[in-house]
């Protein structure tokens, strides 16, 4: 289980968020030759995980993400954030970013020794962002640090 290294909750500020937007991608456990990346389908829709190949290479969504403390994962050039939707089997949807630091939009980044990052949910700290290889969607699943939860951010 992933454990946050903070005793309190701190909302992300500019010093704790990435300053350059980048793709959020994983190399799923079912195939180490494929890279899947988070792809926005506009406000209110589920975030898809698409293979970084073919027509998607130049149109893949870029994101700002927390780097040191709790914070939102925001789509570049928008006011839309990833939001855990508990009523949709913990799928991740795109919603207007909360000005109050809503826990269902807050994520904690844990850097792994391989350089990848696991994002833990503030809403339920037992859940982490996950590439659901069966549905093709981004969801929140029990934290286990498997390759479907290891995001290659900023690379």
**CATH architecture assignment:** Trefoil
Whole-angstrom Rg: 14 Å
Strand order of the largest sheet: 3-2-1-12
Average of per-residue pLDDT values:
84
* Strands, count: 12
Description:
By secondary structure, the chain is an all-beta fold. The protein has one domain: Trefoil (Acidic Fibroblast Growth Factor, subunit A) (Trefoil). The chain is built from no helices and 12 strands. The strands form 5 sheets. A 4-stranded antiparallel sheet has the order 3-2-1-12, with no helix packed on it. Strand 6 and strand 7 form a beta hairpin. The chain is globular.
List key phrases describing it.
12 strands; Trefoil (Acidic Fibroblast Growth Factor, subunit A); 155 residues; mainly beta
Could you give a quick summary of the protein structure above?
The protein has strands at residues 24-26, 36-39, 48-51, 63-64, 74-75, 80-85, 91-96, 107-111, 117-121, 127-132, 137-142, 152-153.
Topology:
Blueprint: E1 24-26, E2 36-39, E3 48-51, E4 63-64, E5 74-75, E6 80-85, E7 91-96, E8 107-111, E9 117-121, E10 127-132, E11 137-142, E12 152-153
């Amino acid at each position: 289980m992933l454990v946050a290294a903070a005793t309190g909750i701190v909302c992300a500020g500019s010093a704790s968020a990435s300053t350059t937007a980048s793709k959020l991608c994983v190399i799923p456990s079912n195939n180490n030759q494929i890279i899947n990346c988070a792809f926005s389908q506009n406000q209110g829709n589920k975030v898809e995980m698409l293979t970084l190949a073919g027509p998607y290479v130049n149109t893949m969504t870029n994101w700002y993400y927390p780097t040191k403390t709790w914070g939102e994962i925001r789509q570049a050039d928008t006011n839309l954030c990833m939001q855990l939707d508990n009523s949709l089997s913990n799928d991740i949807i795109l919603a207007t970013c909360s000005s109050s630091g809503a826990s269902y939009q807050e994520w904690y980044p844990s850097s792994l020794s391989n350089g990848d990052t696991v994002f833990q949910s503030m809403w339920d700290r037992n859940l982490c962002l996950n590439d659901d290889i069966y549905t093709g969607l981004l969801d929140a699943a029990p934290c286990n640090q498997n390759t479907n939860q290891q995001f290659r951010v900023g690379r």
